[in-house]
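2024-03-11 09:14:02 INFO receiving multi-entity request
2024-03-11 09:14:02 INFO entity count = two
2024-03-11 09:14:03 INFO echoing inputs for audit
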Amino acid sequence: MSLRRAALVALAGLGLAGLARADDGAPSVSADPAAPQAAPPPVTLEHAGPPAREPRHEIHPATPLLDAQGEPVLRSGRPVSFMRSCAGCHDTAFIAAHNYHAQAGLDELAEPGRTESGRPWDTGPGLFGRWDPLTYRALTPPGAASLDLGTAEWIQRLGARHVGGGPAERSRIDGQLLDARGPRGAWDPDSHVLDPASGEPRAWDWKASGTVELNCMLCHAAAPDNAARIQALQQGRFAWASTATLLGTGLVARDEAGFRYLAAAFEPDGSVRAERLGLGRARSASCRQCHGRACRCSDPVVFENSLQNWSAETGGAIYSPARARLSGMNLAGKDGLDMPWDVHAERLLECSDCHHAPNNPAFDLKRAGPERPLLHLAFDARRTSVEDYLWRPDHELVKGHTSQGTAARRLDGSMRDCRDCHDAQAVHDFLPFKRTHFERLACEACHLPRLLAPARMSTDWTLLGPDRQPRVSHRGVEGPVNDPASLVTGFEPALLPHRTQAGSLRLAPHNLTSAWFWVQGEPPAPVRLLDLERALFSPEGYHPAVTAALDADGDGQLREAELRLDTPAEVAAVAARLEAVGVRAPRIQAELQPYTLGHGVPPARWALRDCTACHAPGGRVTRAFALADHAPGGVLPRVVGDTRTELAGRISAGADGRVTYQAAARPGGAYVHGAQGLTWLDVLGLLLVVGTGVGVMVHGGLRILVQRRRGRAGR
Amino acid sequence: MGSANASSPGLVRFYTLYERLWHWLQALSAVALLLTGFAIAFPAAFAPLGFASAVAVHHAAAWVLLVNAGLALFYNLASGLIRRYVPSVKDIFPLGMHHARYYVLGIFRGEPHPFERTPEKRLLPLQKVTYFLILNVLLPLMALTGLLKLGADSQPELLGWFGGMPVVAVLHRLGAWLFAAFLILHVYMTTTGSTWWANLRTMLTGYGQAECREEEPK
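2024-03-11 09:21:47 INFO inference complete, emitting structure
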């Protein structure tokens, strides 16, 4: 038996042990058949008894820590390479290639403007190539006239939410390793970054920085030091990012030069025991590092809304088993919120239980998945063997279909959805027209009636605050977000038709975030942040021309309330400043990005059961949804093109300037009884009925009158 | 002519017990359907009824009305009484016009009812025309669209053939408004007998005063 095979057999044992852990600590069952059989308590953190035993990491063999050249790091002192270290047992090249978290859209790049989003400046659907108004800086495509965000700076700014590999390792232009290529022409965005001082491209020294290879430990180590990793990325020490992740394991320490390895923590042969790394499958905490890292997910839950807590910021979702009423947040009606932040987290589901590797043999292939394989098979016994799976675990993790999950759309709907685990037919006896409801509604439409946390409502990049940050507003909070004194009210999501992979439209809960920003030129592209700052600010603060245009009370200062572009004169003043710093034809543009919500699901007793919540005029299906407090420049947002969410209603600004989305009367073609309100038909019908009533009353009245007259005449 | 009422001389039997039960059951069902239908269409205005219970009662009442209508159809077909409901051209013109003239003018002038009303000829010309439209157009329309809506869950394809819920629901709603108007008119017309309550009493007791003309208007 080869060494690799022996190791894989051992790993297979680890996998099976992991699968079997659900039996650990199970409550004993009475042997007396006559004894009353009480219903077992739900398996929750509260009822699971003693904590589950840690997986037996020792089954995983010790791992040699190697550098990119394959030398033990203890000997070379160079940055660790998990792509080399783990390759002895796992096909890391395969894993990096079949991994949309690593590719981040690199494998789906297109010419600018040829993407589904419809943005002329987008070059792909992923984190690398698709512009996000929340983070603003636009990745500059090859051949662009000016540089905004080059690849190296993309890593520095957005690498915190990227696992490495893909565009952080290889050039999108020629596929070469970034540290092994020179610029194409005078400059290209893979070899240059924007020099903030000069505003001109500056060559990036890839030899010095190295590249960011796929960081296995970010997800598979028990306690990766993500903060140190991010710091290394921001400092441009890309190659050391993986090594920084190991801080805290005792294997690595900081020193003046960067990092040094601590030999005492290594085995005599230079390898590292699995327990020290805490090797195992990706845990929810691993995912939280990028998708919602600010949530500590322990009692009491305390979180903040920021781009570091992405899921909460974009959708108000907190994936935590902890009770909301025990949280440290100032929640409205907190005492009554005796519920976990997410019932699936409470029931011990890890993220990877739903978003698993597609070839993980522990999970059946989703029979209704995008490829719809072998629908006649209730069970397909042909699975990847555990050995083969551990050798080549496909990291194209199965996913749902959301508005915002634009990367790897090929995998949309590949994950198990609610109905694959829950038999909805069996537990919705109160619901008339089950099939219709189930076909037309995502489960979350009723089971996610309210998000407890605030979420981003609008982002205004047309003016920057004194901190040079955009003007941001949130829904679901009274007062400034993240202010402990603000009351967190949460919000009811908008029910919008979202197109499933199968092509049907289902009403699903969404948060709608709008963004206003300046674009320039033709085809348009966002004005560079650097130029925006130059236009708005002088060394002393706001530029005098900007202050003069916006200073409504004439005190020479710009207060919070004055930082908005309402009038054409104000817009023109800022546009003039932008032109003064070289921006061509600046104008305001706005867009609307829906975020499909699927996390933060409360227990079923909190689900929506009131029919009139939807089946009423102004119900959830047809009600207006607030988008922003005002529309900078009077520009109304347009929906981004790649969301698969249908917004056929009307976006408008009211007399008070508030921008709202009024849902269509029949969203997605769904006729919702009771929600249509008074239609022209009802007006006609009402006229008919009232007319008939008036007619008979007049006729009857005349009869009475005539009869009385006749009676008097008779007397 | 129907049998005379021994206790009330001059009264004859217009409606059998079954006919009266049938009528009142249909009336109850129709009212329930209208009320619950409006509760479904305008839940905010009929909040006390509750949307879910309105849907349940609506479905139950619809089945009662439908089965009752089916039984009546069978009864009238089997007995041949269906002919009563079939208007002739003459029933529309000139008799219908004459009938209408009575309600527009004659009733105020104290003229006698222009048509003989006996248990055998209980439906007058305008009634025949109205019921013909109700039974052949409105009721089937409501039944068909109602069944299509009811079957939306199990037979969505069938619903699709008829234009889907947006079309079917609108037709059903149109029918409901027409039915509501008919109901108002129908109740009012019961007051146009020999006394305000004569027709109502006939439908309650089965017995009423026969109105015989020596010659019907031409």
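2024-03-11 09:21:48 INFO post-check: The CA atoms of residues 157 and 234 of chain A lie 7 Å apart.
2024-03-11 09:21:48 INFO post-check: Chain A touches chain B at residues 430, 432-436, 439, 611-612, 615-617, 666, 669-671, 673-674, 676, 678-679, 681-682, 684-686, 688-689, 691-693, 696, 699-700, 702-703, 706, 710 (CB under 8 Å).
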